[in-house]
Here is the input.
Amino acid sequence: MIGIRIGHGYDVHRLTEGRPLILGGVHIPYERGLLGHSDADVLAHAVMDALLGAAALGDIGGRWRGADSLRLLEQVTAHLADNGWEIGNVDATVLAQAPKLAPHIPEMRQKLAAAMGVDASQVSVKATTEEHLGFTGAGEGMACHAVALLSRK
Here is the structure.
C-alpha cells in the first residue's frame, strides 16, 4: 500500500446576476456570483475533488445539492480520516478575470484550513487572470485547479 497520494481537482461555474460570489467560504464583493446548485464555491469544490481523488474515494458530484461548501469540506475531511488518510497540504489556483482576489486570499486560506482541521500553512491559494482569453478571461465564469497531498495515518 502506498502511504502518500496526490490528487487533482477542477471545478468551473458560470457567473450570473443575483448570486453572491463565494470563494473559499469568503463572500467577495462583486456584482455577479457563481451559478450552481450549492453555493457554487469553485475553490472549495476543486479542493474537495483533489482530496477525494487522492484517496480514490470518488468526487463530490451532486451528492450535496444546496449545501454550504465549507460544511461539505468538513464532511469530506471526516470521510478521509475514517478511511485512514490525513492531509499533508493543498495548493489551489483560481482562474478569474475579475474581481481582484489577492486581498481575500489570507481569509480564504484560513477558512479552508479550519474546515479541513489543518494549519493555514498547509493551504495555498493563488489567483490568476487568463489575459482575456477563454470563458474565464471573457468574464463569463470562474474555474479552479487544486492539488492535494495525503498520507496514511
